[in-house]
Amino acid sequence: MAEVHRCRSWNVCLAGQTADGRDATNELTYLFLELQERHGREAPNLSVRFFPGSDGRLLPAARR
């Protein structure tokens, strides 16, 4: 596991849309964002996908 933390090039993509166009934001999305806010880790990089149907709480949570 220590080897994974030395590599800073991995990414976790959060939210977005499902194959049928629904919002893919879920509890895990908010958990990742909360943990990043609390601990400020350099890895993984977090990417958040937005679309017009995104949960209204997502942008404020991602901006923290």
Could you walk me through the main structural features you see in this protein, from its secondary elements to its overall organization?
The structure is a single chain. By secondary structure, the chain is of the alpha+beta class. Helices cover 38% and strands 16% of the residues. It contains 3 helices and 2 strands, in the order αβαβα. It has helices at 2-6, 27-39, 58-63, and strands at residues 11-15, 45-49. The chain has a two-stranded parallel sheet with strand order 1-2. Helix 2 (27-39) links the parallel strand 1 (11-15) and strand 2 (45-49). The radius of gyration is 13 Å and the shape is globular.
Main β-sheet: number of strands, strand sense, barrel status? 2 strands, parallel
Helix content estimate: 25-40%
Which consecutive residue ranges, at least 5 long each, have pLDDT under 50?
A: none
| Structure class | alpha+beta
